[in-house]
Amino acid sequence: MIIGLTGSIATGKSQSSKIFKQLGCYIIDADKLSRTLTVKGSKCLADIVRVFGKDILKPNGELDRKKLGLIVFSDKQAKTELEKIIHPHIIKKTNEVIAKKYKTTDIIVDAPLLFEVGLDRVCDKVIVIYAKYHLQLKRLMKRDNLSKKEAEKRIALQMPIEEKMKLADITIDNSGTLSELKRNIKFIYKTIKVIEL
Fold first, then answer.
1. Is 98 exposed, middle or buried (0-12, 13-18, 19+ CB in 10 A)?
2. What span, in angstroms and rounded, lies between the C-alpha atoms of 48 and 127?
3. Sheet of 2-7: strands edge to edge?
4. What are phi and psi of 189, to 5 degrees?
5. How many whole angstroms separate alpha carbon 1 and alpha carbon 169?
6. Is residue 37 scored above 70 in pLDDT?
7. Is the pLDDT confidence value at 7 over 90?
8. Hey, which bits of 15-161 come out as E strands?
9. What is the per-residue pLDDT across 79-111, written as a single tens digit (0 to 9) for each?
10. What is the reported pLDDT for 197?
């Protein structure tokens, strides 16, 4: 079984992914894939440099993620350009991993842009993790050391969580404690497994 896992920034998707891993699922983490696909010397990084210039590189030739982040989080067009470059690489790699692992284990496709890139189409079920806006904002400010304005801007750049929730098969409210989140995920995973049998 393939389960898509998504949410908005700082709603607890990564934490949820860890819980699924503890339950024995194989995790395909789109963010980690993105990092491995943009290492020094990669085709993906060369494509990014061609569009954004050599200023986004560190002196040693590696991608300066902070610098690139500042560009794409302040310019919607730049964000779209970057996604156009990276997404085909992520989709290709995700499909390769699914083909290898599908028959042996349940797979979680952990992707913040699951719907936006069409990865929901390879999933049997899609789960959206959400949290109350004021909590999401607070978590993001703390996690990334951002001002309220910067955090609001980053959230606004994403597909509204309400839209994602409408497209999901299952939604999980992560406005509570970690133990509540664990309990909810365990119950939902168990229920899905029973339905699939």
1. middle
2. 31
3. 26-29, 107-110, 2-7, 125-130, 170-173
4. -65, -45
5. 14
6. yes
7. yes
8. 26-29, 107-110, 125-130
9. 899 999 999 999 999 999 999 998 889 999 999
10. 54
